[in-house]
Amino acid sequence: MKKRDIYKFASETLVNPKNWKPQSEEQIASEIYGCAVNDGTDRSLNFDDIRVVTAVNTFGLKDKNPVESVRFYNKNNIKSIFSLFFKN
Fold first, then answer.
1. In a domain, 13, yes or no
2. Phi-psi region for residue 12, left (φ > 0), alpha (ψ -120 to 50) or beta?
3. How would you classify the pairing of strands 72-74 and 77-82?
4. What does the pLDDT read at residue 26?
5. Residue-wise pLDDT tens digits, 2-57
6. 71 has pLDDT over 70
7. How many domains are there within the chain?
8. Contact assessment for residue 83 and residue 68, using Cβ atoms and an 8 Å cutoff
9. Residue pair 1/24 in contact by the 8 Å Cβ criterion
10. CA-closest candidate to residue 69, choices 51, 85, 57
11. Is residue 73 included in any domain, yes or no?
């Protein structure tokens, strides 16, 4: 029996709700399949091998990025708090 590692998670995308163009999971799978089959390699991929799951989670922040509200602490100075995002 052959053994191969198969990805359980391939990608995710953060989409601004204002720019969201709904597509069905089947449409997305078809697009992925088209890219994979026409990539010039000798791989064998069936359409049924592709599984697409879409989910929308706003964390109660609507169109804001939830990571912007996460604060980090300096381990050498716990009174020093910083964010990875800077506001202009």
1. no
2. beta
3. antiparallel
4. 93
5. 666 766 777 777 777 777 788 899 998 898 888 877 666 666 778 888 888 887 77
6. yes
7. 1
8. yes
9. no
10. 85
11. yes
